[in-house]
Specification:
With 424 residues, the chain is of the alpha+beta class. The chain is built from 13 helices and 9 strands.
């Protein structure tokens, strides 16, 4: 790891720090600062506008598409300073972090001019249409079909675990556009409007009453012909780019949500006396070590990006990091429930109060299942070894691309079917 922050990045640090101090509410940096509910509401309503006017939304995008054209290291500094100040960036993960950069890399000039300004301004919200009931880890097995009818694609099929599907205006969706091609070859990446008669969204309610996931059903839904990103039947490589953005963001700041959560658990252990248990102390020390390993791993990833390295080990870093933090989080949340003790077995959340989940932000529990903040984090951690690439798939990536191990054997029935197809 060889990482030095260049002079222009440090100069930019001073600029963004001054902007934050001038634009955050008065008293924001005071240790006992707290906003009233009315002040919180006003802040939420005005902050995104300030970010947009300051040019801090998607600031690493080229200037011709509305960004500031920041360098990689300036973008890192931007993220670090917002984290240092505890100031929220705009929470449009799917638009800002996933589909926007994908369109920048693979989109036509017309697609860039059509969609990027609307992403920047917040005019349209997005969701991701990748997983299906029979195509999760094996994403190339998608069955949702798109057939060309004049100037439009007609889409039929189903997607699942579609986060924010019930509020999105558009979905970037993987569809099979050539059923006769090999499964990785016949897929296209479409930008499809959500608000139309052919799309039905059904929220999937979780055990704690939240419902950020949804099922999406397409029945003769329509999508403009020109909304294919990267070319017809080239959607697999485009999707891999999107997943790379999903797994590789926040190199030097991603660990901090876990650091903040761990501080919360340590303080809880001090308050209820569980810190005196040597097994609890050992578990907390192990968790601290793993959070620091995440920090170093993020610096390694960033160092490789800045150096322009493209060897297999670098390409597998995001898989390694995702595998590490998702499994760590399940481990620390098991410990958190142990620290809670008997209290962890009852529902102690208050539905009337918006609480802050350490490392995640504000949330409000449901009256039907009033889980506490740590209980909600525990439930959410169960999903983290699945979304964004399952742990099993991440291990395959590391084994095959870095260690040079043979590919995982296919099931006998799949080998038989492929042999029959080849002989025919």
């Amino acid at each position: 790891m060889d990482l030095t922050y260049p002079a222009d990045a440090e100069e930019f640090r001073t600029e963004i720090r001054s902007w934050l101090e001038a634009n955050l509410p008065e008293g924001w940096f005071d240790p006992d600062f707290e906003m009233t509910p009315e002040e919180k509401l006003e802040f939420q309503q005005t902050w995104t506008t300030k970010l947009f006017e300051g040019g801090w939304i998607c600031a690493t995008w080229p200037a011709e598409y509305g960004g500031k054209g920041l360098t990689t290291m300036q973008g890192v500094v931007l993220s670090e300073e917002f984290h240092r100040a505890g100031a929220p960036m705009r929470a449009d993960f799917f638009g800002d972090t996933l589909v926007g950069p994908t369109i920048l890399q693979w989109g036509t000039e017309e697609q860039k001019k059509e969609f990027l300004p609307k992403i920047l301004s917040g005019q349209i919200a997005w969701c991701q249409g990748f997983s299906e009931p029979d195509a999760g880890s094996d994403l190339a097995a998608v069955k949702t079909r798109a057939e060309l009818d004049g100037d439009e694609w007609v889409i039929n099929g189903q997607k699942i675990w579609t986060t924010q599907g019930f509020v999105a205006d558009y979905i970037f969706v993987l569809c099979r556009t050539d059923p006769d091609a090999p499964k990785h070859k016949g897929i296209s990446y479409l930008l499809c409007p959500m608000r139309q008669p052919g799309i039905e969204v059904r929220p999937i309610e979780q055990v704690d009453g939240s419902a950020e996931f949804a099922e999406v059903f397409f029945t003769d839904a329509r999508c403009p012909k020109d909304n294919v990103v990267g070319g017809v039947n080239s959607g697999w490589k485009v999707a891999m780019t999107t997943l790379g953005f999903e797994r590789g963001t926040s190199a030097t700041t991603g660990y901090r949500r876990f650091e903040k959560e761990l501080d919360h658990i340590v303080e809880l252990a001090r308050r209820n006396g569980r810190i005196e248990d040597p097994l609890v102390r050992q578990g907390l020390a192990r968790a601290y070590s793993k959070v620091q390993l995440m920090r170093v791993a993020g610096l390694r990833s960033l160092s490789a990006i800045v150096a322009g390295r493209k060897d297999p080990a670098v390409s597998a870093l995001s898989a390694t990091n995702k595998l590490f933090w998702s499994e760590y989080h399940q481990e620390i949340m098991n410990l958190a429930i142990d620290v809670l003790g008997a209290e962890g077995q009852i529902l102690t959340g208050d539905p009337s109060v918006e609480e802050s989940v350490p490392g995640y932000g504000a949330r409000r529990t449901s009256e039907r299942y009033p889980a506490s903040v740590l209980q909600s984090s525990f439930f959410f951690s169960r999903s983290e070894t699945i979304w964004g690439g399952t742990s099993q798939i991440q291990r395959n990536i590391v084994g095959e691309r870095v260690l040079g191990l043979p590919k995982e054997p296919k099931p006998p029935e799949q080998r038989t079917a492929e042999a029959a197809t080849a002989s025919a």
